[in-house]
Design brief:
- With 268 residues, the chain is α/β, with parallel strands linked by helices.
- The protein has one domain (10-262): NAD(P)-binding Rossmann-like Domain (Rossmann fold, 3-Layer(aba) Sandwich), CATH 3.40.50.720.
- 40% of the residues lie in helices and 16% in strands.
- The chain has helices at 22-32, 58-65, 70-77, 93-107, 131-155, 177-197, 219-225, 237-248, and strands at residues 10-14, 36-41, 83-87, 110-115, 156-165, 202-209, 259-262.
- The protein has a seven-stranded parallel beta sheet with strand order 3-2-1-4-5-6-7, with helices on both faces.
- α1 (22-32) crosses α8 (237-248), α4 packs parallel to α5 (131-155) and α5 runs parallel beside α6.
Length: 268
């Protein structure tokens, strides 16, 4: 078993309410390594048909995003008591500052930040995108991640790791132009902050997942997407969490400013 050297370190993970999501999988992976965890979530008001939520698909996904963290909290408490949850909007400066203060009061210095939280819109083309979608997505995906990184700089302990979440199609995501462009901005921020924070010993990298089964991919979509993936299967949240663990470890101390596609070869 690999020891990532994370025991006793404090990690912040945003966007953990979906039990099938990357945030939840990453939280469980860190807990198993002995890290202390502080997590944020926001209940999202997406429409869904409850009759269609028994199997994977957009209705199941939207229902999960509307919930709280009760399911993942129960799993984490089987592993460690060192967890803290906060419900709020990371695009609001007051919430971010208050959250970091709570984390420092509970755990002391902070070592790791995983910027996982993100919004998207299903009406996201140049013909249909709305001003509301632009504001919501850019505020959450860019402003929120930037606020989280700024506050991290004020509170990190001697060991610092930041891992941002992008998407493998960030450079050209037709059909998801606001979401995709927000992730392209995250990649630019990752490189810039890596340069600015390097002298402090903080590494800053991004993970860019390909099509990953977090509950939103139904059977029909899976059949159409998998042929585009050279490895021949959808990603699993644990695939992404594994790379985040490595980037958070001391084994990645000379790796910074990188965008790592974890996509099975999709969108190369």
């Amino acid at each position: 078993m690999t020891d990532y050297g994370l025991r006793g370190k404090t990690a912040i993970i945003t966007g953990v309410s979906n039990p099938k999501g990357i945030g939840a999988a990453t939280a469980l992976a860190f807990a198993k390594e002995g890290a202390k965890l502080a997590m944020t979530y926001k209940r999202l008001d997406f429409p869904y048909d409850d009759a269609k939520t028994a199997s994977n698909g957009i209705d199941s996904y939207h229902k999960a995003l509307a919930g709280d963290c009760a399911e993942i909290e129960a799993e984490l408490r089987k592993i460690t008591p060192d967890i803290l949850f906060a419900e709020g909007d990371i695009s609001e400066e007051a919430f971010v500052i208050s959250f970091y203060n709570r984390v420092v009061e509970r755990f002391g210095g902070i070592n790791i930040l995983v910027n996982n939280a993100a919004l998207y819109s299903e009406r996201d083309t140049i013909f249909t995108v709305s001003e509301k979608d632009m504001d919501n997505i850019y505020n959450s995906n860019i402003k929120g991640a930037l606020l989280m990184m700024r506050e991290f700089m004020k509170h990190f302990a001697s060991y610092g790791r930041i891992i941002n979440l992008s998407t493998d199609a960030a450079q050209s995501f037709a059909g998801q132009i606001t979401y995709g462009s927000s992730k392209a901005a995250i990649e630019a921020l990752t490189r810039a902050v890596a340069i600015e924070a390097g002298h402090l010993g903080i590494t800053v990298n991004a993970v860019a997942p390909g099509p990953t089964q977090t509950g939103w991919i139904d059977e029909a979509l899976e059949k159409s997407v998998v042929p585009q993936i050279p490895i021949g299967r959808l990603g699993l949240p644990q695939d992404i969490a594994n790379v985040i663990l490595f980037l958070s470890s001391d084994k990645a101390e000379w790796l910074t400013g990188q965008i790592i596609k974890v996509s099975g070869g999709h969108a190369l």
